[in-house]
Write a structure and sequence with these properties.
The longest helix is centred in the N-terminal third of the chain and has 46 residues. The chain is an alpha/beta fold. The strands form 4 sheets. It has an 8-stranded mixed sheet, with helices on both faces. It has a 3-stranded antiparallel sheet with strand order 1-2-3. It is globular, with a radius of gyration of 24 Å.
Length: about 425
């Protein structure tokens, strides 16, 4: 009996020792291979904080932690192994230090986040006031409500968490409706369709699919023609899916949620690239996060698609979704040389990446702005550019406090403040 206890204690000590050795080894390898990333992130954290020594030290350490996590040695392998263990134990909730990044596995196998209730009155007030300003200049505004992983009339993830994304969206739409803002609720369109809700989304990513983005484009195009006098040149051709090529990249995409739990837990998604069969000719200017401007010219494929992101030689953790436009940028200016009229402003989140390129097919000029990444004097901008129509497109999970705080900081109404 005594020998058995000694053996168990020895086994426990050996397990602890091996675990510590394992963590130490990975940490050491991370420092050796990723010291540049860690150092760069630490310096950025130091520079972005106030002048007090305590705050700058805090920013430095926070930046170093972000850099360490980013550069973690064999990070994907580590996540894969962790995910496989969770799968073996039947876990449907993979918790994160930040609750907003906790991953939930739905009954249909898809992964999702879950968000709390947010106050949407500020964003509703801005859109309503902006709509009033535009109306005084005979410019129509349409708010497009993109969906979330959880269907419109469902609030429970089914695995122990309530998601308030749809409630937040409902509250926003209700406030906009009360102020006379035109809106198109794509969640309702999905609910009315014969296609199951989950087929509009990737299993491992929080975004809708490129096919869903095209579907949304056709619904918005129909709505524009129904409620405004804005013409959509060539819409009978551009809204017909048979006029497009579809390239399928099978089992090539591990999305934002899948990258948090690993491919063994999440599986992999197919990625579809949809491009026009008909002739197109564009000039595109992309304002980057560093202030430079990328210029592209040519067909839809060459100017609005970044095929380097779809390269099958890259890891499955590559963000294939960013094949459209190349990802989220502060702003994009698109000139369609094949269309004679129409100027469109789209204010969007990342759900717009697979939507806006298609709508640009019907306008001579399309401007795309992401207020999370660009400071904008909105009134002067609209007055200078003379848009024919303005569209907002946000998904139902967008109204989280961090997004709203950044938008408030980046949005400058202009010399004439928007007021009720």
């Amino acid at each position: 009996m005594l020998n058995v206890k000694r053996t168990e204690r020895l086994r426990d000590k050996l397990t602890v020792f091996l675990f510590i050795l394992f963590i130490f080894s990975f940490g050491f390898c991370t420092i050796v291979t990723g010291y540049r990333t860690i150092g760069k992130s630490a310096i950025e954290g130091y520079k972005q904080t106030p002048d007090s020594v305590a705050e700058r030290l805090k920013g430095f350490l926070s930046g170093a932690e972000r850099g360490f996590n980013e550069a973690f040695f064999k990070r994907l392998l580590f996540i894969d192994v962790h995910g496989a263990v969770q799968l073996a134990f039947g876990k449907t909730i993979i918790e994160d230090v930040n609750p907003l990044n906790t991953v939930y596995k739905l009954d249909n196998g898809q992964l999702t986040f879950a968000y709390p209730k947010y106050d949407v009155s500020d964003i509703a007030g801005f859109i309503s006031n902006f709509n009033g300003y535009l109306a005084s200049h005979d410019i129509p505004l349409i708010y497009v409500q993109a969906p979330f992983k959880i269907p419109k009339y469902h609030y429970d993830t089914g695995v122990g968490a309530v998601d308030f994304s749809n409630i937040n969206a409902d509250n926003l739409l209700s406030q906009l409706d009360a102020e006379g803002v035109r809106s198109l609720d794509l969640r309702e369109k999905i609910h009315e369709s014969e296609t199951p809700h989950h087929e509009y989304f990737y299993n491992t990513d929080h975004h809708w699919t490129s096919g869903a983005g095209f579907w949304a484009y056709t619904k918005v195009a129909d709505y524009i023609l129904e409620v405004t006098d804005v013409p959509l040149e060539g819409a009978t051709i551009t809204t017909n899916f048979s006029n497009y090529n579809v390239e399928v990249y099978p089992q090539s995409f591990l999305g934002s949620q899948g990258r948090r739990v690993g491919r063994l837990y999440a599986g992999l998604d197919d990625f579809e690239l949809i491009t026009p069969k008909f002739e197109t000719n564009y000039i595109v200017e992309i304002s980057t996060h560093k202030g430079s401007v990328l210029k592209r010219q040519g067909t839809f494929d060459k100017s609005l698609i970044d095929r380097s992101v779809a390269d099958m030689g890259l890891p499955v953790s590559t963000n294939r979704y960013a094949t459209y436009l190349g990802g989220d940028y502060p702003s994009v200016k698109i000139k369609n040389l094949g269309v004679s009229e129409g100027k469109l402003l789209i204010i969007q989140d990342s759900f717009g990446l697979v939507f806006s390129p298609f709508l640009s097919l019907n306008f001579a000029e399309t401007h795309i702005v992401d207020l999370r990444h660009r400071r904008l004097e909105i009134l002067e901008y609209v007055a200078e550019e003379q848009f024919d129509i303005v569209i907002f497109l946000y998904n139902a999970g967008f109204y989280r406090a961090d997004n709203m705080d950044v938008i408030k900081e980046n949005l400058i109404c202009g010399k004439s403040e928007l007021k009720r």
